[in-house]
Design brief:
This is DUF7751 domain-containing protein. The chain is an alpha/beta fold and 229 residues long. It contains six helices and seven strands. It folds into two domains: 88 residues, no CATH class; 117 residues.
Length: 229
């Protein structure tokens, strides 16, 4: 929601038109580097007043892995969240190590679930826009990364090519060409292969020894083959 203007505006409109007896609770995880911190194990309640939205703010220590690396978007994101949910309840991390480990594992699972759901929605959107459909799309679980729009479009393009290469007959339903989840998997495998190659090349470039500052700057401008075309 945060960072997407259209979704934010739509949700804001829905919240403003809710009945007075409805309370909406949202949750947001962020790094615990704020100036104002409550005591460990305590809950920070803000005055609810007439507002019917509340935010559960999950506080994390600085050394806990980031669920989303969006540091540049954080200020804008937090402003949007705060506008929709001005009343905040801060939930501190469990102090017991066993409970803390379980807490983190649950958050990791939730993060993977959200990524998988978001990727399916993105793929479905591009498929619909392209006049395609994949009935068994939900059978895929893409939880290792959040796919960017450009990546999703490439995956669908490769999936369509795979479909044409392996299907002798075109199945059309509701004016949409039906492709299988196997074709989508093929597109995803190509994307993962390119990403792995790109990471490997960048790592090898870092290992290159430069003799002067000019060569160092020039090396930083090298474009991986996968990024060309």
């Amino acid at each position: 929601m945060a960072g997407n203007t259209d979704v934010y505006t739509s949700l804001k409109s829905k919240l403003e038109n809710l009945p007075a007896n409805v309370v909406v609770i949202g949750s947001h995880a962020q790094m615990d580097n704020r100036k104002e911190k409550s005591h460990p194990g305590s809950l920070l309640f803000t005055k609810f007043g007439a507002n019917q939205t509340a935010l559960l703010d999950l506080a994390f220590p600085d050394n806990f892995g980031r669920l989303h690396d969006r540091s540049k978007e954080t200020p804008k994101t937090m402003k949007q969240v705060t506008r929709l949910f001005p009343n905040k309840v801060t939930i501190q991390l469990p102090q017991d190590e066993a409970l803390l480990l379980d807490w983190k594992q649950q958050l990791e699972r939730d993060s993977e679930t959200l990524k998988a759901q978001s990727n399916i929605v993105s793929l479905r959107s591009v498929l619909n826009r392209s006049g395609l459909d994949c009935p068994d799309l939900e059978s895929l679980s893409i939880k290792d990364q959040s796919l960017a729009n450009e990546s999703v479009e490439k995956v669908v393009g490769w999936a369509l090519s795979h479909h044409f290469m392996h299907s002798s007959e075109a199945l059309v339903k509701d004016a949409k060409l039906i492709i299988s989840a196997e074709s989508i998997k093929y597109g995803l495998s190509i994307l993962q292969g390119i990403q792995s190659e790109s990471k490997s090349l960048k790592k090898s470039l870092k290992d290159v020894v430069t003799e002067n500052e000019f060569e160092k700057k020039l090396l930083g401008d090298v474009i991986p083959p996968s990024d060309i075309g």
